[in-house]
Give the backbone structure.
Amino acid sequence: EVQLVESGGGLGQPGRSLRLSCTASGFTFGDYAMSWFRQAPGKGLEWVGFIRSRAYSGTTEYAASVKGRFTISRDDSKSIAYLQMNSLKTEDTAVYYCTRGDRFGDPWGQGTLVTVSS
Amino acid sequence: DIVMTQSPDSLAVSLGERATVNCKSSQSVLYSSNNKNYLAWYQQKPGQPPKLLIYWASTRESGVPDRFSGSGSGTDFTLTISSLQVEDVAVYYCQQYYSTPLTFGGGTKVEI
């Protein structure tokens, strides 16, 4: 069974950093791109970015709202994708989800809540 | 960026009746080289992550009941629930994956 488990969420201060992890199981992690999405409280879904597989050079793409502040990376030996979030803003408050693939999300993890507040 | 617009924002349907959710993209998401529409539908129940229902506009994900169907091409798409069940109460989102940034519609809340 394919499973994705996000971790690392919590309270972050504006301007500071947090790193989220997405631990995968049930599939050959290195063969797939991995994506991050987020959902602010009571709001809709927003794409954050993705990292392609090594076969596609592991390149990344990001939403304009996070480009230059957030970085997605991966460790294929551990089956983990990371979302490094720097220069946090209050508007980054959301549940962050990781998914498999770089087109549509399938499946989705349960998500991890990030709250940015002073 | 491709803007996705869903309608209605919410709808109430009787048990066993048909529910229809519409999604319109600001530009075509039909890729001419493979004749595929880069459009997905998700279901999100309260407190849960989204669940993929439909991709390529009309391909049902494995395990999704056949009362869910997707149709449309180019810029206009529809998600139909043929006979609404209690467990279908949720918010439904469309998403284009034709180009980055990947974008979603605002969601449609389906109630009984």
In short: The mean pLDDT of chain B is 97. The two ends of chain B are 34 Å apart (CA to CA). The longest strand of chain B covers residues 19-25.
